[in-house]
Amino acid sequence: MYDARMRMLVTICACGLLASCSSAPLSPARGGDYDLVLANGRIVDGTGAPWFRGDVGIRGDRIAAVGVLSAAKAARRIDVQGRMVAPGFIDLLGQSELYLMIDNRVESKIRQGITTEITGEGGSAAPLNDEMLAELKPFLDRYKLRADWTDLAGYFRRVRETGSTINLGTFVGAASIRGLVLGLGDVQPGPEQLAAMERATARAMEQGALGVSSALIYPPGSYARTPELIALARVAARYGGVYASHIRGEADRVLEALDEAIAIGREAGIPVEVWHLKVAGRNNWGRMKELVARIERARSEGVDLSANMYPYEAARNGLVANIPEWAQAGGTDAMLARFHDPAQRARIKAGLWHGGLGEEVPEGILLVSALNPALKKYMGKRLSEAAREMGKPPDEALLDLVEGDRGNVEVVRFVMNEDDVQLGLRQPWVALGVDEPGQALDGPFKGELVHPRGFGAAPRNCWDGTRAT
């Protein structure tokens, strides 16, 4: 278990998302000895005030004093002159909810200064039922993780037992609520089912959820219509929660999808957070200015709307995201059965290259992770290259990879434009969301390829005054 000395990190930059601490710039400290003093740093305290030079005293697991501590006794004193010192950064979308149970060091977050993570993108660690556990089984089996909880209370209890170097907060996923009541199919709730979904959302909020979230390009969450999301968001609003969303389209339909999120916020009376704001697909490059204008207008009209981003032009998700939504209805077994029906397979292949992240080509998809050992030889290669090695056209190779790993192959997609990314990051209502689980280079995840955002998002998001670097 890392202690406060790892939680209060010395960094070479200071980003905008900082937890505040009590500070008394350049005033003598009181209260005796410290376990650690970080001396002569340029302190950014997270309040929005300019940095100031001073010392930080840590006692136990708390920041005990900020000011002039030159006369104080300390078990350890580190001279950090020339460095910025800041409280731990907050990752507004992290994905570590299961990973930290496998390796509780969560090292890739700690090493870039992140000490608090928010997670639960559309699907959350709870609630769970047998059908959802069956979908998770390949991952759980691969890492010998026992999911012995069904609700958020049980999940948080397990996290406390496991321990973690980071603080964790989670949303309850609308897709998880949907799976609990409706299953994994493309169906719409009746009045009684919607009421059950509202009760499940209320229970999750009472057990500590920060709000309700959606991921609207991924089944089964994508089957939800706007009124359903408004109903769940209204429940979260009663508890002071937030509605967070991976919006329904990030390419050709991005403005329409953003308008849906704004409408949900307005109708439910709830703050809205847009997760990993982006414009994807080469034909949409340059449209970030339209998103910025739309968000600014909504904010001026009273909608409490903000966003987060990672500072890279490549995204990461599952290769299964190429499979059309209709073909994923009912879960993995139902999807794979459609692969073996000639007529449905032909229809699926026709829809592989233009999905929620816009038009794609096999050369723009990098294979990075698979649970099936037989597929490891293709990881680190573009889909086009893997297809050549398999001796198959890219569409056939894609379907075989999805089937061979039961939908668990992860990919990096080069779908964004750097200028759009930079424009988004400059907005005062945009904060950091890494969108990658925390892991280490050794231990259970040794040898796994990751998106560089997993280790470098916070440093790369630091400012030189004109742009993120």
What labels would you give this structure?
single chain, 469 residues, alpha/beta, Urease, subunit C, domain 1, TIM Barrel, 3 domains, six-stranded mixed β-sheet, six-stranded parallel β-sheet, 20 strands, 34% helix, 18% strand, globular, disordered N terminus, disordered C terminus
Overview of this protein structure:
Mean pLDDT is 91; it is low at 1-30 and 463-469. This protein has 469 residues and is α/β, with parallel strands linked by helices. It is built from 17 helices and 20 strands. The chain has 3 domains: 4-86, Urease, subunit C, domain 1 (Roll); 90-312 and 420-445, Metal-dependent hydrolases (TIM Barrel), CATH 3.20.20; 317-414, no CATH class. The protein has helices at residues 4-7, 99-102, 107-110, 130-142, 152-162, 174-182, 191-206, 226-238, 254-268, 288-300, 325-328, 332-339, 342-350, 383-390, 394-404, 418-425, 453-460, and strands at residues 10-11, 36-43, 52-59, 62-67, 77-79, 84-85, 89-91, 114-119, 167-170, 172-173, 211-215, 242-246, 272-274, 305-309, 314-318, 354-355, 358-359, 365-369, 410-414, 430-432.
